[in-house]
Q: What sequence folds into this?
């Protein structure tokens, strides 16, 4: 124990209580997490089971569990072929992809908001989504081929995202660790890639192509498959771990670069690392599902409201709640106007704006 | 371990903490500029182990810039900063954060962290990267908050604290870093007079070496062992308060006319003459 701390900063003669304005309310923001996080995790598991059972052919939850248990290798009575296929080949990958995309986007958003100290930052800040659309449109409309086969949409989108992020780093130059610089570069590159996308679409307008591009751009989980789930799981898992390992640095950034540095962090290096990790995560997720908006912007604000902004708790909580949120959004998107399907991005915006407004109204922060 | 106390300090016979030795600070020939504008030139400053050094000077004289360079937050264009005879920029960041703590002027932030979480940030240089907060860290942070007069404020959100409360939370955060050298940039900002006096008494009695920028000449005279007076990025005077705070020098630097008495404790007292006379 440090006796320097023990030496009083308050004169003993001072009237007791004069340093306290009033008895402070027990907000307990950091303690919330201990009880709420396991609860949220439980809710996520229930959500996954429920979402898989809901659809044009309703399947009871116990059949869902049986099908999963069967595929994982438990000795249970297998389901008939058709329902089994609905659960295992169609719905489960889609629900899991929704969970991973929601988790990943929410974590990216939280990290970028902390890095740039900008509450409006979202996973697509650094040109990732406009790069993805350019890549996807180029593949779809221009029919770019590598070697024998045509390049698929996912690959095109990922390459486009990376090209855009590369352009952002290039434009930001050597001082890419400065948030303002990299955000401005992100804005410029986003505009550039949007312009290129429009140019490609207009230059060769097959209405059918354009429509499928639009649907994909708004975000859709229809293309979910086990390979895309596996890839997303790896990307989100590794990304979350890297970001979580930097949780203390992210906390310190809120108090400015000098404070972060004086606490032993290297702000420039940490920022470049985390900008790169979040760009990779966002690029992989956009390639799998299109640019689903508002999850990465809204969920971190809502979670901060519940858990406070300490990142050790905030990041896992964002992952769990982002996952739950997107599963529900996608479930509604595919069932409400069944058999017609809404792009899930439309729904996240519709749900996201009221949540955002509520959080803004109830925020206790200083102006 | 011997407490390197100077006269008039350590009245209570406080023990010196194990593992926290007050550091000696030597800066020499410091030059610095931003975008072609020269901010500091040929600045030298020495702080003996355990001393409290006040950094004075009018607005724009380079106090804050000098403090940043002393803290190793930026590298001087010329000259060197030595902490116990080792160049500050040769010490790895994390190791440096265990030896030097800095209280900067406040950054506007609406972070939703509790006061306790903010103070615990001061323990991160001691913690492995993925480790959680230990019980000892928690206890240290609680005590630091209590000693900053903020007992019961542990769970208060940062955004609900007043300017003075934030200043004291930030100080508690610096204290749990257990620094050998504590650097503070105008820490009396936002504090009422009682908390200003408490803070300066605390700094003067603190075992660690302290360099603090101040605007109030009388507070500086009363509590600092040595003063360094900056003007236009250069040191115009350095020494004991009596040596530095003379009528002629205050007029030269601040363009303010004063009378200076020497009080019974040997410290100068500055009386400001009104502009009219």
A:
């Amino acid at each position: 124990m440090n006796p320097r701390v023990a030496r009083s900063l308050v004169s003993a003669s001072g009237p007791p209580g004069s340093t306290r304005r009033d008895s402070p309310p027990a907000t307990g923001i950091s303690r919330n997490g201990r009880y709420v996080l396991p609860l949220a995790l439980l809710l996520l598991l229930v959500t996954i089971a429920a979402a898989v059972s809901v659809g044009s052919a309703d399947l009871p939850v116990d059949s869902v569990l049986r099908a999963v248990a069967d595929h994982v290798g438990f000795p249970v009575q297998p389901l008939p072929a058709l329902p089994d296929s609905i659960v295992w080949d169609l719905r489960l990958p889609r629900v899991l992809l929704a969970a991973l995309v929601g988790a990943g986007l929410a974590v990216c958003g939280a990290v970028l908001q902390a890095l740039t100290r900008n509450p409006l930052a979202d996973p697509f800040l650094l040109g990732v989504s406009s790069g993805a659309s350019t890549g996807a449109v180029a593949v779809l409309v221009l029919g770019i081929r590598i070697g024998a086969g045509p390049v698929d949409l996912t690959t095109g989108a990922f390459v486009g995202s990376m090209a855009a992020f590369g352009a952002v780093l290039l434009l930001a130059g050597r001082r890419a660790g400065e948030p303002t610089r990299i955000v401005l570069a992100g804005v410029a590159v986003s505009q550039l890639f949007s312009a290129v996308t429009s140019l490609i679409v207009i230059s060769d307008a097959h209405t059918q192509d354009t429509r499928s591009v639009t649907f994909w751009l708004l975000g859709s989980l229809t293309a979910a498959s086990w390979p895309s789930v596996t890839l997303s799981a790896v990307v989100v898992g590794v990304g979350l771990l890297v970001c979580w390992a930097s949780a203390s640095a992210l906390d310190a950034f809120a108090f400015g670069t000098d404070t972060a540095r004086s606490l032993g962090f290297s702000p420039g290096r940490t920022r470049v690392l985390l900008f790169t990790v979040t760009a990779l995560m966002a690029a992989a997720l956009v390639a799998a599902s299109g640019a689903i908006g508002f999850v990465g912007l809204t969920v971190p604000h809502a979670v901060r409201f519940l858990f406070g902004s300490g990142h050790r708790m905030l990041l896992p909580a964002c992952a769990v709640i982002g996952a739950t949120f997107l599963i529900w959004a996608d479930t509604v998107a595919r069932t409400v106007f069944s058999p017609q399907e809404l792009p899930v991005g439309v729904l996240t915006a519709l749900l996201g704006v009221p949540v955002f407004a509520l959080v803004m109204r109830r925020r206790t922060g200083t102006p | 371990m011997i407490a390197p106390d100077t006269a008039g300090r350590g009245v209570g016979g406080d023990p010196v903490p194990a593992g926290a030795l007050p550091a000696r600070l030597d800066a020499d020939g410091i030059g610095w500029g931003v975008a072609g504008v020269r901010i500091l030139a040929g600045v030298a400053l020495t702080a003996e182990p355990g001393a409290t050094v006040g950094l004075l000077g009018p607005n724009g004289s380079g106090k804050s810039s000098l403090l940043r360079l002393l803290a190793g937050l930026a590298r001087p264009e010329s000259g060197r900063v030595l902490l116990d005879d080792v160049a500050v920029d040769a010490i790895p960041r994390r190791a440096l954060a265990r030896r030097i703590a800095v209280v900067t002027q406040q950054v506007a932030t609406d972070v939703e962290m509790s006061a306790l979480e903010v103070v615990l940030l001061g323990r991160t240089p001691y913690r492995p990267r993925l480790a959680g907060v230990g019980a000892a860290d928690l206890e240290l942070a609680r005590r630091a908050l209590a000693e900053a007069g903020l007992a019961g404020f542990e769970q208060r959100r940062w955004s609900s604290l007043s300017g003075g409360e934030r200043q004291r939370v930030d100080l508690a955060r610096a204290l749990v870093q257990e620094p050998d050298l504590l650097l503070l940039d105008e820490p009396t900002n936002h504090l009422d007079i009682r908390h200003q006096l408490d803070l300066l008494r605390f700094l003067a009695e603190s075992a660690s070496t302290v360099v603090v920028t101040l605007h109030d000449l009388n507070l500086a005279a009363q509590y600092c062992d040595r003063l360094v007076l900056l003007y236009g990025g250069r040191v115009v005077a350095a020494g004991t308060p009596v040596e530095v705070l003379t009528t002629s020098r205050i007029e030269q630097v601040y363009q303010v006319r004063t009378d200076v008495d020497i009080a019974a404790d040997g410290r100068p007292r500055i009386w400001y003459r009104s502009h009219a006379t």
